[in-house]
Structures are given as C-alpha cells and as structure tokens.
Amino acid sequence: WFTDYVKQYLQEDLRGRGVVLNREVVIRKGEGEGRGERTDLRVDAFSSGSDPEALDAVTVIVEAKGCWNRQLDAAMEEQLVERYLADNPSCRHGLYLVGWFNCPQWDEDDRRKGRAPRYGLEEARQRFAGQAEELSRRGGPRVEAVVIDAALR
Predict the structure, then answer these.
(1) Within a 10 A sphere around the Cβ of 18, how many other Cβ atoms?
(2) pTM value?
(3) Per residue of the chain (153 residues), what is the pLDDT tens digit?
(4) N or C: which end of the chain has fewer CB within 10 A?
C-alpha cells in the first residue's frame, strides 16, 4: 500500500508533464506458471529532444520497501540492480525508495516494529545514499536512494 500512495501522489504531482507511472510491471516473463519479475513502479518520462519529430524517453524502475522489510539492506543490490536493472538495456536508472515509519506512536504489538532498524531517519538516508553511490560507481546502472519520513506526528 505504501507504493500505491507514492504512485497516486506522483500521478497528481506530475500530471501533464509527459510522465507515465505504472505499478507491478512485468519486466521479464516467468517460466511455466511463474509470475515473472514485477517492479513496484516503472516511471517513463518523455520530452522533446534534439529531433523535434521524436520524443526522448527515460525509464526509471522503483523498488520500494517499508523499513521493517527483512531484505531492507540487501534489496537495493540484489533485487533492484542485480535483477530488475541487470540485462535491461531499456532501463539503466533505478530508485530505491524506503518508507521510514519508525516513531513512538507505532503500536508495540505490531510485529513489523520489531523488525525495523533501531537507527534514525538521517542515518538511514546516509546509509542508503552511500549504498546507491557505491552501486552506481561500478559502471552499471545509475541508482539513487530516497528515504521518506512516513512516521506519524
């Protein structure tokens, strides 16, 4: 549901700007009965380029995680870079989006709270930005990380 809210917000904010957002896009078909690989969000942006008769396009694949996700520290590399962006010539840009829900109002009985990291929002932003920078330096796809403060006030 976190990704649904992000998609809705971006659609409203970017309306009329040549941006198309899609949720759960199949980028590779599965074998047999398999589902294949589905991205959380695929963003396609179009603008007029050097040729006035054609549009330039940029595609960004977004992988989103809540801060409680067990794969939080590994998914940027293992899922976004090594699966969704690997061998994908039509898309060389990725965004790792983390919803940071840690706050005192989080119900103690919610099992997700126990799986969330104990460090703060700013440390999370630094950690994931550093990881994205390192992955981008390898010469493959360009990756950025954004940690959204989704805590209750």
Answers:
(1) 13
(2) 0.87
(3) 889 999 999 899 888 888 888 888 776 665 555 566 788 899 988 877 777 777 778 889 999 999 999 999 999 999 999 999 988 888 899 999 999 998 889 889 989 998 999 999 999 999 999 999 999 998 889 999 999 999 886
(4) C
